[in-house]
């Protein structure tokens, strides 16, 4: 049975180290706003890159015609077409397909990878029919969501900085990924062209704005995290010359790199030190789906070793492997309302290969809650930081009217407690009056259609 005397002090210390009372949240929100300003002042001025997206026209709802989207962000890519019918008819029809990228192409040449993508896109386009119709004399336009680091220089150009997420494609770094795809499509004689190169958060904002004129911010909480928002061009000192007549532009914050004033524990520090990018992406490591389960696992290992969680200093062998406990597992354990915590028992048995008594299971749920609570509340403080920055530069334009924050990503979508903590922190920070005007809502598949909408909004025919 559990040596509860050993477990309690570790849990208490964890809860203390993870605490996010209002002053901590306020500090994080203020620091986020300050870091945003510093990043807008000069390149490299802050942890936040504050990347200009070159998207300065968001969808209005009036878009008409057939548009395509291509989403490349991992080992799968998605292709989609949408027929837009304008203000009244809106989305007349949409179809999509998911294609997995063969392992060997992740290590191939740039031409081989883009030829494969172009070919899949071409096959998909050939199945067009029914409700889909291209306007006479036009080529098919594509919104291309590319979730790897690129240095964008226009809405249709982006130089690849490096491949990540296991890709090691040769001959693409330093090249324009839009040109790579356009050339591959030309080689196949395809009648398609990229009209907009889009970051996934920007796609989410575009998708949300299409349905709701008050959408101003988009946040992704999935494996990783990021946020973008509508900024006024004259609030961006580092934007030397104005290329466009639009008074606004979308800024991609890359907020995962934020690190100022976060309540961190020994478990966070050890996880960071052993990660492939120590010292980087600290906000992401505290709030996003890739890491929450791993932080809980590290706490469990210590509690097993020092606190006798699973019987005196017994550390289950399986539990020692990094990342065996995933965020969906801790989410599942938190949904367990049974008296004996049977679901908790079954996760611990599957993942850690361990038998647990009821008091150990309760402790495990408390740990999950502590880590999810800190993550959700800090994400909420980050959102308030963005809204605060927007409000300070435009007195009354944010808090004085309805403002929508569009949310997407598996963590936000599937983890109700996390969502609740996020909302709670936003309400605490803004107060009940102002928070009535701030609507935080899930934008389902915003980014998929969003990229096609940005191709429409940036069509070369308009
Ligand atoms: P990605 O961010 O990888 O592009 P998603 O937005 O679908 O894709 O997010 C997937 C992530 O969401 C997973 O890595 C996981 O961390 C988190 N997630 C998925 N399902 C759940 C769940 N049931 N509970 C909590 N988190 C989940």
From TrEMBL:
Q: Which Pfam families match?
A: Hexokinase_1 (PF00349), Hexokinase_2 (PF03727)
Group of enzyme by EC = transferase
Q: Which residues form the Hexokinase C-terminal domain?
A: 217-456
EC numbers = 2.7.1.-
Per the record, the domain of life is Eukaryota
User: Do the record's keywords include Protein biosynthesis?
Assistant: no
Keyword match Kinase: yes
Name assigned to this protein:
Phosphotransferase
Can you name the source organism?
Answer: Solanum pennellii (Tomato)
